[in-house]
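Entry details:
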Amino acid sequence: TENRKHSAYYFECHIYCATSKMISQVQAQAAIATAFLLLGGDNHVESFIPGAVITRTATITSSLSLREQPDNEAITETSPPLIPSDATEDELAWHANHDFTTAPDDASSTASATDDWIKQDFESQSSTSFPSANQEEVQQSQQLLANGPIRGPTNVIVYDTTLRDGTQMESISVSCADKLKIAQRLSEFNVDYIEAGWPGSNPKDEEFFRRAQTELDGKAKSKLVAFGSTRRKGIQAKDDAQIQKLVDCCAPTVCIVAKAHLWQVTDIIRANPTENLDMITDSVSYLTSLGIDVMVDLEHYFDGFKFDKDYTLKCCDAAVKAGAKVLVMCDTNGGSMPWEVDEITKETVEKFGNLATVGIHCHNDCGLAVANSLTGAKAGVGLIQGTVNGIGERTGNADLCSIVPSLALHVDSKMTCNDNLDEITSLSRYLDETLNRTPNRGAPFVGSSAFAHKGGLHVAALERSPDSYQHVDPSKVGNQLRVLISELSGRQNILGKMKKLDMDIDEKTVAERSLVILERVKHLESMGYTFEGADASVELMILHSTQNYCLPFRVLDYTAQVYDTDVDSASRVMSKMENDKSRNGGTVTKTNLARATVNVRVLDDPNHGEDEFLDRLEVAEGNGPVDALANALKKALVPSHPALESLQLIDYKVRILDPAAATAAATRVMIEFKDVNTDRQWTTVSVDRNIISASLNALVDGFEYALKDVVAGCFFDDFE
């Protein structure tokens, strides 16, 4: 288009960053509008995918409605660019300050002159008009591999693939909005790379990369990696639609998967071995020619190495010569043993460690993903791929929540996320909450049981030295020590709990009462109670043993009624879920099937200034007897204790302890509560052969625990 003429309806507009700053979306749109003008096109754009933030030379392809021009006809008409109806004030101001109707006087201006004209305009605008990402953060990410290969275990790059490989786990589904939230949280934790998806495989991942340009901050965007594969057989990389998706998504780094197992090449994808090498070379060289950092996941690497080492190493050689910065050895089937990983990694690092960073990607089919990853780091691996909480296809991927703390605390590896290590437990639980998964209590480092101690001997030793039964300080990973109470507990467990409550009791009394409480715990557990997950019930038991503690309220009596309109088995499900539409004007309404009455004695003065008591009788409805009781209890207590307004029931578990007793079986109920104002959570437990009584007792304990810090003075002694 040197003479600013055209004869095609489809062309590519190349946007060059003329300054060291990043280009905003409105600037990119303005640049393309200018290019349309110079090419003599009208202002109708049929489709346009904007590069909201362009950190490298980018290709933005638009399908235009252009009028044809004879080869030698000069452009004489110009028209202003189309301004969107929803343009922001900044966009309107930008257009108002620029005259798009005047092109250079000489219609035969050279491309160089046109380029200078556009660049000059970019330079004047990009420095003042629009906010840019933190350049120091972006440069830090981009230059991570710029100084040459990284070799472990001294230095290790953390590569997270939770949003891509992790989401392949059974029962896991994540929305685009949640992926954006997780990506931002991973960036805040400061992992080095965030593999966010495969834009060529599904619309959701394409949407993610598009929205990421405007919804993630600059630091997070600089860490994004787009996943893809080598080009298809019989086609050039530049013509492969899937490769082009990787380019168009504007991710600064791309990771492509390539076959590195000769049998997989010949029998699975049915390609010629030489052609597979060409696919690697062509794909990597094309992407690197566009200024994209390229990593190569060498699929079935360890199995391929054992099958035909020479061919697997040829795949590495092809990738490195084409410009790949990282070679990732993949234990795709998860069947490699640590000693095999050690041997193969050492040989690979010896051959290619000075040319590229060697990485590792392990699956957990043998339960060895973490061990193999750490073994790889010891043998020279400089980049480790994994997922938060080890989620991933089949049995999962290498768990970064185990790998990162192990490297930081036991190997002294240098990682960019080391300073945020005390946030890893929070990151783990945030992911589980976002994905609606139940956290693994027994997960190393981050599980709620990771630093939990039950045996009395252990607890006694921990009182003398925390290092006696802990390999690290739990606070270093954002977790905490927990002393469990059970029939296996010793007196030290109870003493530890009492010290935590900071009770003003002499040591002799504490020692005596701890023995009494321990015996009570053992007796209750023999009946079916379990206090390991119900710390609130244990603390209340301790508080009740003290003379200066008083109940904030007392339930004098209660009733619960359950009613139904149709007990026919064929229709009761629908009758419980919604009212009959014909009787409600076609409107579905919530159906309450239970009613509860609670008679509660409370202190009438919320500030506990006077010993005045009030019996309050309240009635409430609910979706079942427990829900109705909870509503009635809350209704009765809130006037005297407004703090309970923020109390929520977030979990309710029931377990039949002796199924052989049938309907006469004892039932254990555990209820989890949350204060939405403080995010504090606690669990209470109760056992009874009457499930309603067990539930009410657990409810009462939960409400009482919420008030334990605000109760003053014992006001029920006179009524004993």
Notes: The chain has a mean pLDDT of 75.
